[in-house]
Amino acid sequence: MADPKGFMTTPRQDWPRRPVEERARDWDEVYVPGALLPIISKQADRCMDCGIPFCHDACPLGNLIPEWNDLVSREDWRAAADRLHATNNFPEFTGRLCPAPCEAGCVLAINQPAVTIKNVECAIADRAWEEGFAPPRPPERLSGKTVAVIGSGPTGLAAAQQLTRAGHTVAVYERDDRLGGLMRYGIPAFKMEKHHLERRLEQMRAEGTKFRTSTAVGRDIGADELRTRYDAVVLATGATAWRELPVPGRELTGIHQAMEYLPLANRVREGDMETSPLSAAGKHVVIVGGGDTGADCLGTAVREGAASVTQLDIYALPDAERDEDAEPWPTYPMRVYRLSAAHEEARDLRTAPVADADARLFAASTLRFDGDAQGRVRSLHLVEVDARRRPMEGTGRTLPADLVLLALGFSGPDREDGLVDQLELELEPRGTIARDSGFATNVPGVFAAGDAARGQSLIVWAIAEGRAVAAAVDRHLTGSARLPAPIGPYDRPMAV
Fold this sequence. Notes:
Elements: H1 6-9, H2 20-23, H3 37-44, H4 54-58, H5 65-73, H6 77-85, H7 91-97, H8 101-104, H9 117-131, E1 146-150, H10 154-165, E2 169-173, H11 182-185, H12 195-207, E3 210-212, H13 223-229, E4 232-235, E5 255-257, H14 258-270, E6 284-288, H15 292-304, E7 308-313, H16 341-349, E8 360-362, E9 364-371, E10 377-384, E11 397-400, E12 403-406, H17 419-423, E13 446-448, H18 451-454, H19 459-478
Helix pairs in contact: 3-5, 3-9, 5-6, 5-9, 6-9, 7-9, 10-19, 14-15, 15-16
């Protein structure tokens, strides 16, 4: 603990964002470049190095947070990078994309603003790359065992890196033309620029991991063929089966899933096309769904030049502070009002004059869509609902809508490629892949991890799943436990 009084003398200071008018005109990350390092050591001083650090329990990776906070406060960046990478393969991803359940579990957060753990993590990761503290770590010798990892999202990449470093020969199969899964085509560049992803992929290639893009297992290569070719198979395909909105008018042109819209915008950034065929430019946009994916659609539509953007959230407007009875510390408070960068932009630019707050209408449920004579959507009819989601009489209203984006989450792995059926995998009632306490499916030598088995979750859980399934596969191949397993398949976030 570098400064025993740091939490009393230093107020919380977050990484400042660029002015809204500036950042809404480009696709660069929203934060002020270079503004984090000058403040981060003093922010790390606020860590109390608690006797029982609940931030450890709140983080499924078991990140050694007080240790690297202390090292950052002393500006020992090499040691801090070593401690951070000991538990997290991709801290520059989590430092930008994770909602930081560790901060909700910070002991300081009982009665003060939490330590800026996420910012400290990001600062360490970026400094590690700048100073060369994250070199490739190829294995000293090969085991002679081979592993196929299906999916190149955070779970698949974490599993592949751990297994490669353990000496196994690993090939990652990705059905898209580029690697990264949702980090590539689902996450907008203003949240994480893609050079962070490319840098890690180059590190993994240098370590010996092989990548096969544009290859859908089950369609381009048979699942049984893959099982024959490799000693073990890891299914990390994600939960890409999106949820639908079965209301009248859903068939109208102009109503799309968020994951139809976001990848096209990202492909424009990759240089694949000049303009997205689903561009929001000049359109009245309504986003149905109040989660992070909806916020990503919001920020994207703002940058594309939408005439208006409104986001519908079926939950009531949350309070500014956590409800200690319903969501007591150190659990992660789901129903707290948070202002993401995209919501701040929409608020300041007044994209939705009818909104309750920023661009959002709360306690709003979609009743139907209406269209024009050409079959294109032109309006959305909604009604306010009570806490039990029952319509409230006299609260109906109509919003203009030329483009509707459904951001309602995902139910499980996509079965379109045939992988699930070819392997005859057992599924849970909710549609995810069933597995035992060792991450193994009902098919010998086939393991499942990440959202495909856990269900839709956070990036920090995805990486933890990748590390844990790698440990299970390594044990299966070698008969011994050599790799760390931060979580089990049945572990869940802290809850009341």
